[in-house]
Amino acid sequence: MRSSWDNRYRERSAPADPSVFVSTDLAPLLGPPGRALDLAGGAGRHAIWLAERGWDTTMVDTSEVAIRLAAERASEAGVAVRVIHSDLTAETLPDGPWDLILMVHYLQRDLFQPAIERLADGGLIAFSVATVRNLERRERPPLPYLLDEGEAPSLVDGLEILHYEEGWSMEDRHEARVVARKGSRSVDQ
Asked: Is the pLDDT of residue 46 over 60?
């Protein structure tokens, strides 16, 4: 698995700008900066965006190539991002508590419960994942990595959902986009 992701990052240029989900949907829901964990963060576009806004950011990815690229990009941007090379399918998540856990374009259903357990009280979990309708226009990601329509809220059951929508994104992906909060701390808007 790691070698396929390494090859993917070697062969294609990775986006540097944050997704619309992060810059538009998540941004107004963020409170004061705290500790952020970006899971499957790739080349670091979201981790760097958070660090530029004062977040103490840690990013995890399985690809050594992506991790190196993220570290280089963070250095060029003049921000500190801790990068962890880890296979999320086989290793545990970094210890919390985290004020924000982010997953964009990555689905591993068994990560949600451990992620929620590592959230600080009042912490946010935010994710944007393609749904099965994405296959109407794109052949990737394949079915095992797609959410069923309407499934997303069940992944954060017990948390307060602050934002939820499903539809075609500006990046032409049919996605479920969720921001949910653990506990009852209010978030400055």
From this structure: yes
